Amino acid sequence: MSIRYDLRAAPSRIDGTGVYAQEAIPARRKIGEMTGTVVTWQTARRRAKLHERIAIVEFTDGFALDATNDKLLRFINHSCDANCFIRCSRHTVEFYARRALKKGEELTADYGETHHDGKHPCQCGAENCRGYL
Fold it and tell me: From CA 108, how far away is CA 73, in angstroms rounded?
């Protein structure tokens, strides 16, 4: 597993399960890499219809990472005021701390465009919440 810090999954006030830092994480540090299977967009979208909750990241080249079976990082919730950022490169999805994170803090990332096409209500609760994913 390519996770560099002690993290745990637990119930989230944002949505379902979240990921929490079990130790302080310095700003701009790589937290870890999401695991999964690289598939075509077509396959990813077909698989997405089979699950209520998905963890699929599409790349610009027609491929996607299906991380539905990832054990931890797939539970990082969306926030419009995220404390982490996502970097996608060569069919990998990495998470980095945007700022210093405290022990016990929930990790969040701005998902950007999603398959919801701006129609799914956002539950992040941030002051700058856009309202929809």
Answer: 10
Q: Which residues pair with 81 in a beta bridge?
A: none
Given a contact cutoff of 8 angstroms between Cβ atoms, the answer to whether 80 and 129 are in contact is: yes
At residue 131, the pLDDT reads 86
CATH H-level, domain 7-109: superfamily:
SET domain (2.170.270.10)
* Separation CA 65–CA 91 (nearest Å): 7
- Residue-wise pLDDT tens digits, 51-68: 877 899 999 999 999 999
Q: What percent of the chain has pLDDT over 70?
A: 95
In the chain, what are the domain boundaries?
7-109
